Amino acid sequence: MNSRDMFPALALIGVLLASSMSAQAEDKKYPNWKGEWDPIFARMPGQQLRFDPSKPFAKGQEAPLTEEYKKIYEDNLAEIARGGQGLFLYHASCLPSGMPSMMSTGRHEWIITPETTYFHREDDMRRIFTDGRPWPVDLEPTYQGFSIGKWIDEDGDGVYDVLEIETRGPFKSPRTYDASGLPLAFDGESSFKERVFLDKSNPNILHDVITVYDHALTRPWTADKTYRRGAKKYPNWSRLTCLEGTNYVTIGKEYYLVSGDGYLMPTTKDQPPPDTRYFPKSQK
């Protein structure tokens, strides 16, 4: 290679080195949230899936519901007591849990890039855009909502400490906080604000302080969700989905069980069979 040909090559090497150094400097600005995270729950009776992990399941959550939604919740609990699924029917049928219950349970990971931070849990995914984009005006209803975040360096050491997130709808409904059918408003107009950060005394504990703004509530409702980082260097991420192995079938608003010999069985006393009006009548 003659000297004239060396200059473009050296220039390219310089650009690549500068780009690599810039990327490394950019990476060092972000906190280390790598690894697998599991929700931390205090040991209490009832299911672990609950919005406020410091309070008991179901009514023990003491959700600040409006009078209208208190009645809706009570009717839902009565249906569950009869053997039904109540308002939890749709998630029990393997539709996505959506916000905020998707942040309450399940092993997950955080994937941080300069433009977008991803929350990934089994078959659920949130995209949190941190690239400064404006709020879109033509959103379609989803289970997860649309999230815009902002990284903050609170102690001024050059490394981000906190990810602030705002999530807006419209959301697909109905959605519930937990398997007791604790409801969010059916209008799908919830919004959420979160502060996600590592615990100051333990870098293997992550906090998600989340506040719900919803028309089913008399006031905003806040909970501090905490997660513990797993010790595995190479986690074995689950690829299972809710539909695998389930023996339940939802037809309309009725929830049936498929027996071992392949027939539908009722799940509640005096449950009506499915409407077969569009099937040909069996020959006698």
Compute the separation of the termini in Å. Answer: 92 Å
Q: Taking all residues together, what is the mean pLDDT? A: 86
The biggest sheet, with number of strands, parallel, antiparallel or mixed sense and barrel status, is: 9 strands, mixed
For the largest sheet, list the strands in their spatial order: 1-9-8-7-6-5-4-3-2
Fraction of helical residues: 10-25%
Secondary-structure element pattern, one letter each: HEHHEEEEEEEEEEE
SS strand fraction: 15-25%
- The number of strands is 12
Helix/strand-derived class? alpha+beta
Show unreliable segments.
18-23
Gyration radius, rounded: 24 Å
Shape estimate: globular
State the helix count.
3
- Work out the oligomeric state of the chains in this entry: single chain
What does the model show?
This protein is an alpha+beta fold and 284 residues long. The protein has three helices and twelve strands; from the N terminus they run H-E-H-H-E-E-E-E-E-E-E-E-E-E-E. Helix content is 15%, strand content 25%. The chain has a nine-stranded mixed β-sheet, with no helix packed on it. Strands 10-11-12 form a three-stranded antiparallel β-sheet. A hairpin with a 2-residue loop joins strand 10 (248-251) and strand 11 (254-258). The N and C termini lie far apart (92 Å).
